[in-house]
Design a protein that fits this description.
With 224 residues, the protein is of the alpha/beta class. The chain has eight helices and eight strands, in the order βαβαβαβαββααβαβα.
Length: 224
């Protein structure tokens, strides 16, 4: 299956926050919900996306697309297109470790976001740069995997402060790691006490129903 790859151009706009607000207004007019997903490499973003798309498709007939951002390769976009059967484009950032609002706009234009109810952005994998740039998304989700440890909100407070929802993935591996759910929630509350938290295993499906129902409700409310 062929996957379109988009070479992104760095925005020339100085005020990315203003441009992000403009993009959000445009998306609202187009009735497209745009979700930015951030995490470190290996957290299970792509597997979580596949499970999320499957869950949403079972709940309701949302038209979904995925933009995969990476410095190089089209592995993730091919995986989404082949396994989920939804429109997918690969965004090459030209060496940059983040996307900004104008880069989002370029990708959304190519994927045809006006025809979609929900577009996911799988942002470049790290817990620093993506949190510093507003992509114009309606909401941002952060995925943390159990092997990374429950102290990450203390080490990367900006990332977790910017999160509208937090997913703790790979809970099936909990017995093998020193990860304490209550300690994590306490650490998260220190920088963000409003974001809902879902403990999931994208591999086994545990916890995915609650996460998918929450997201479905969010999108449906937005599309009213």
């Amino acid at each position: 299956m062929n996957v379109k790859t988009i070479q992104l151009k760095k925005t020339i706009l100085e005020n990315n926050d203003q441009d992000a607000d403009l993009l959000r207004s445009q998306l609202k007019e187009d009735q497209t919900y745009y979700m930015n997903i951030m995490s470190s490499p290996g957290s299970g973003k792509t597997t979580t996306l596949l499970g999320t798309i499957k869950g949403l498709q079972q709940l309701a007939g949302l038209k979904i697309g995925v933009m995969e951002a990476d410095i190089d390769s089209d592995v993730d976009a091919r995986t989404i297109a082949e396994q989920a059967g939804v429109p997918s484009v690969q965004l090459h950032t030209g060496g940059m470790c983040h996307l900004d609002a104008d880069m989002s706009r370029q990708g959304l234009r190519e994927i045809g976001s006006k025809e979609l109810d929900l577009v996911f952005l799988e942002n470049v994998g790290n817990l620093v740069c993506p949190a510093e740039f507003d992509t114009g998304a309606v909401k941002s989700a952060v995925i943390l995997s159990v092997p990374e440890g429950d102290d990450k909100p203390l080490k990367y407070p900006l990332m977790f402060r910017e999160a509208d929802v937090v997913l703790v993935n790979k809970i099936d591996a909990m017995p093998a790691f020193d990860f304490d759910m209550e300690r994590f929630k306490s650490n998260l509350a220190g920088c963000n006490d409003k974001a809902p938290v879902f403990f999931i295993s994208a591999a086994t499906g545990e916890g995915m129903d609650a996460w998918c129902q929450w997201l479905n409700d969010e999108v449906r409310e937005y599309l009213k």
